[in-house]
Amino acid sequence: MSKKFTFIGAGSLGFTRGLVKDILSFDAFKDAEIHLMDIHEGRLEYSKKAVQKLIDAGKYPATVHATTDRRKALEGADGVLITILQGGLDVWRHDIEIPKKYGVDICVGDTRGPAGVFRFLRTAPVMLDIVRDVEELCQNAIVLNYTNPMSMLVGYLQRMSKANITGLCHSVQGSAEMLAGWIGAKKGEYTYTCAGINHQAFYLDFKVNGQDAYPQLHEKITTDPKVLNAEQVRNELYLQMGYYPTESSGHVSEYLPWFRKRKDLIEKYCTHGTNWNPGEYAYIVKAYEESGATWENAFKEFLAQDEVDLARGEEYASNIFNAVFGSGESFIFNGNQLNNGIITNLPAKACVETPVLASPAGLQNIHIGELPSNLATLISLSAQIENMVVDAVMEGNPWLVYQANLFDPLTAAVLSMAEIKTMTQEMLDKNADFLRYFKSLKI
Questions:
Q1: Closest C-alpha among 352, 356, 327 to residue 340
Q2: Beta-sheet strands, E only, within 142-296
Q3: Residue 387: closest CA among 349, 438, 441
């Protein structure tokens, strides 16, 4: 019997095309029903054509369906993938521009800090609506979230629902591939244990052919200028803390008090890195301005291609589905879930990013134990702030939003308490149309 896969927010060419290609590459899913849902009818139609092109290229007996009706798309689904963005660029650019007015310089702002907090406040009600539909229409489905801010959203949804949901980010496997490339290790030769929270996880070990590869990495980072300059923030963090982080330098710089609080530090650490996203202010705003003008051409270019790459990529999603309700081949991945003792020196309600075993029995968390004390100190603060924001949403409490911003490491390194309060109030007022579920917007 064919399996049904539903994409909520299917108008993203990159995500939808890549994930569908991966799903169809498994024998168990070649006859899959692909259901695409998006509120943007133009993008939705292009996505449908793109998926049909994949189906035709692979000569798969699969089908594709497109709708703006979320409930119709979800009914009877076996797998659900969520890739939404609540509010357009005209809405969320203020998450970055308002803090900048007060002196807080943000690069991406989709995970934590003032920008990540307000993205969560807008997105949480919509995500809960989606999960409530899942509970009613496809209660046994495996739900994979790609929407940021990952930790707050998944932590919130797991506190509010018993749906089979986890969150996925490609930074873990992507960064591992980068590290392996630096020391000449090939796929299949390297392994790792990675744990923490989304965008603030660390490789507790990194091995090549069973041997500790950290000494090789250390030598490469400290002796090869090309490697050192590729990821200036991340490399500095590794050199000072002893473990390598998963997220790009631009992202990482926002979550910490050490790299963006002064112009000279931004110039030193966040300007000249040679890898993707070294840390430019409002990098993501500029990227979306560009993609907003070119998305249709990107679809057309793909549709015009004579040859289509059908090789499976490195995203986890299709392997998870295959493990649970495909061939049954088990698969270990890094997912996001409530802690509840997985990492013993982080808060129980923290949403952690740790190894998970996918199998026909479902998704089973793999115990980590204690993190090194320096990592636990760093991550625990972020996790407790995120819990505070989740509580703010559950209570409709603007005071907790202010308290979360008050303890944000970068914001606290730049602003006084009074300035943070004023900034938070301005951001609450700016987002009033999205925060009608709050009891009040007055701090």
A1: 352
A2: 142-145, 164-167, 190-197, 200-208, 211-212, 244-245
A3: 349
- Rounded-to-integer distance, Cα 124 and Cα 147, Å: 10
Give the chain's end-to-end CA distance (angstroms, integer).
Answer: 54
Average pLDDT over every residue of 118-130: 98
Dihedrals φ, ψ of 396, to 5°? 65, 45
CA distance 134 to 80: 9
- In DSSP terms, 206 is beta-bridged to 192
Tokens of 286: 């500029």
pLDDT > 70 in the chain, percent: 100
Measured CA to CA, the distance from residue 284 to residue 305 in angstroms comes to 28
Specify the DSSP element, H or E, that contains 67. strand 63-67
Q: Strands 79-82 and 142-145: what pairing?
A: parallel
Separation between Cα atoms, residue 56 and residue 59, nearest integer Å: 5
For the segment 379-424, what is each residue's pLDDT rounded down to a tens digit?
A: 999 999 999 999 999 999 999 999 999 999 999 999 999 999 999 9
Sorted by where each starts, the structural domains of the chain and their CATH numbers stand as 4-87+113-167 (3.40.50.720)
pLDDT per residue as tens digits for the range 361-386: 999 999 999 999 999 999 999 999 99
Q: Which of 170, 214, 218, 288 is catalytic?
A: 170
> Among this protein's residues, is 170 annotated catalytic?
yes
What residue spans of 59-208 are helical by DSSP H?
70-74, 89-102, 113-137, 150-160, 171-182
Catalytic residue among 60, 190, 243, 255: 255
Q: How far is CA 230 from the centre of its chain?
A: 22
User: Minimal CA–CA distance to 247: which of 143, 382, 156?
Assistant: 382
What is the C-alpha separation between 421 and 406, in angstroms, rounded?
8
Based on the residue annotation, tell me whether 60 is a catalytic residue of this protein.
no
Q: What's the pLDDT tens digit per position in 232-284? A: 999 999 999 999 999 999 999 999 999 999 999 999 999 999 999 999 999 99
Query: Element (H or E) spanning 319, and its range?
Result: helix 317-325
pTM value is 0.97
What number of other Cβ atoms are within 10 A of residue 391's Cβ?
17
Name residue 196's amino acid.
Answer: G
